[in-house]
């Protein structure tokens, strides 16, 4: 038996944060973007996140055991749109979409079927709070949580409208011996030539350093970001120091993941020249690329692409990671996506949580969409 609750993230107790953290550690599919290390400092420091809520399925009716949470899903309320005409819940609100490029709910890996069923029950139980529907953005199409979610909704006759499906760049390290993934790199030879040109230009050998355990690494990353276009708002940059509370959030977020040894901040250097920095978070058997920045002075040599590939080699040789998820939107970062040999297909859906009228509304919207596609 399980119950559902909707909690305000900004008001969570230490005990609730610990229960959330414990669930994330045993989740069927890792999602660092939905962990407390990411979202608790976000709602405390960044503007725009004060309304962030957490839908929790709790198997411990006393609510006090850290192992009692079965599932957790952050969301915000958003205005009506083409997917649902009225105000409703979404994991892809402006705030979440900016910081969370993956929307897989945290589901207890020891009871996936039961937990997903209870999560769908929670969608219905909390339908008024959710606005009769919830948008689930960017779930892994082939992931256990998404597949079970689709099954449960189909079994119960719950209308689901799916969209998206753009594949994003990835690397599967488990498809061969160490280093074999590099043979599948679409631009492997050109990157090798670029690396040699960059070394000749700088006059030093390229070295990749993992500085994730440096207590001052957040400041170093932000200082480096400030030197380029990302730190220049007049050039469209959205560097963290240009966002209210951005520096504080980034520092706390990075420290949170570093405390458990999951934060890697790779620095590509040649002699005393810093060329590229990348933040990668490892959770379970998956590594997630999050932020990176490169030196504009050496941009013509492609230090960003070279740094990413060297970081992949480091992960392959020094970690148990099986998959690297670039976390990049392929429509915004096509060139960067083309660097990677593999793809992860994401899918987004709107799940109707409400009454017969709400379900009928979704069926009408889906039928209308099919008519429009045929006319086109």
Task: Provide an overview of this structure.
- 36% of the residues lie in helices and 24% in strands.
- By secondary structure, the protein is an alpha+beta fold.
- The radius of gyration is 22 Å and the shape is globular.
Topology:
Elements lengths: L2 E6 L5 H12 L10 H10 L7 E6 L10 E10 L9 E3 L3 H6 L6 E2 L4 H14 L1 H4 L2 E8 L3 H12 L4 E4 L3 E6 L15 H15 L3 E5 L6 H10 L19 H14 L3 E8 L2 E11 L2 E9 L8 H16 L4 E3 L8 H4 L4 E11 L3 H20 L1
Parallel strand pairs: 4-6, 12-13
Antiparallel strand pairs: 1-2, 2-3, 3-4, 3-5, 6-14, 7-14, 8-13, 8-14, 9-10, 10-11, 11-12
Helix pairs in contact: 2-9, 4-6, 7-10
Radius of gyration: 22 Å
Beta-strand residue percentage: 15-25%
Largest sheet: 14 strands, mixed
Which percent bin holds the helix content? 25-40%
Question: How many individual helices?
Answer: 12
Sketch the topology as an H/E string, one letter per element.
EHHEEEHEHHEHEEHEHHEEEHEHEH
Shape: globular
What low-confidence regions span 5 or more consecutive residues with pLDDT below 50? Answer: none
Number of strands: 14
Mean pLDDT: 90
Straight-line distance between termini: 48 Å
Going by helix content, strand content and strand pairing, the class is: alpha+beta
Summarize the structure.
By secondary structure, the protein is of the alpha+beta class. It has helices at residues 14-25, 36-45, 94-99, 112-125, 127-130, 144-155, 188-202, 217-226, 246-259, 303-318, 334-337, 356-375; strands at residues 3-8, 53-58, 69-78, 88-90, 106-107, 133-140, 160-163, 167-172, 206-210, 263-270, 273-283, 286-294, 323-325, 342-352.
